[in-house]
Design a protein that fits this description.
The strands form 2 sheets. Strands 1-2-6-3 form a 4-stranded antiparallel β-sheet. The protein has a two-stranded antiparallel sheet with strand order 4-5. Helix 1 packs across helix 4. Strand 4 and strand 5 form a beta hairpin. It is elongated. It contains 4 helices and 6 strands; from the N terminus they run H-H-H-E-E-H-E-E-E-E. It is 35% helix and 9% strand. By secondary structure, it is of the alpha+beta class. It has one domain.
């Protein structure tokens, strides 16, 4: 009598390959859905903040954050801890974050943003309650800076926050703007920018932006796969 050979049949191997393919497809699809949700979150957050900013100005005829704390307290009807110098614009957040932090406190206490923010002058951190966080749990800042790529006069802009993978930053730029990191309303930031781009509160990430953009003309450098990009939304 001959011995029967052990092993898998072609049908069994085909079934295993189909199952593996389905699992891989599900994983990739799940990752795609998560990334799409993060892009939507970043886009919605940017739009919501911009609407809140202009809504506050329309109601009170004052720039949130620039408004002094005493008058803001009287008008809003709750205690405002931090305010600005009433010069009609937000100051640069480099070094002194008083007005930039006061913006979040005043917007939230006036009911234009969800959350509870306490103000203060120190640079906000992800562990604090001074500023909102993006989808990657990094701080968001609004201020007047020139820390963005391309033609860059000092302008009011929303710093979307660090920790964004380059692929998501590229998709966000395409969703809100033109997909180009140095033109339009959505811009990348240079490695030597001062607002949450150079190593500082979170030095473990290393140098910013070196692998986020490249080429001439500049493009979002998807092959480099950088995972700590930042961007700004120009008002």
């Amino acid at each position: 009598m001959s011995e029967r050979q052990g092993g898998f049949t072609l049908v069994e191997i085909a079934v295993v390959l189909v199952i593996v393919g389905l699992l891989l497809g599900g994983i990739l699809k799940g990752r795609e859905l998560i990334n799409s949700a993060r892009v939507r979150s970043l886009a919605d957050t940017s739009s919501t903040i911009q609407a809140a900013y202009f809504g506050f100005i329309d109601r009170y005829r004052r720039v949130p954050g620039d408004w002094n704390a005493s008058d803001a307290t009287t008008a809003i009807g709750v205690t405002i801890n931090t305010g600005g110098n009433d010069n009609g614009r937000l100051d640069s957040p480099a070094g002194d974050y008083t007005e930039n932090n006061a913006l979040w406190e005043q917007l939230s206490k006036a009911g234009f943003l969800q959350g509870s923010y306490r103000g203060g002058s120190a640079a906000p951190t992800p562990a604090g309650d001074v500023s909102p966080l993006n989808a990657f749990h990094q701080v968001i800042v609004i201020g007047r800076t020139s820390d963005y790529l391309g033609d860059n006069p000092v302008r009011l802009n929303l710093v979307m926050g660090r920790g964004v993978p380059v692929g998501i930053m590229r998709e966000l730029d395409s969703k809100l703007d033109d997909g180009v990191p140095d033109t339009g309303a959505v811009r990348g930031v240079p490695a030597n920018a001062t607002v949450f781009t150079a190593p500082g509160p979170d030095a473990a990430h290393g140098a910013m932006e070196a692998d986020c953009v490249s080429g001439t003309p500049l493009v979002w450098d998807l092959p480099a796969g950088a995972r700590d990009c930042n961007g700004v939304y120009l008002f």
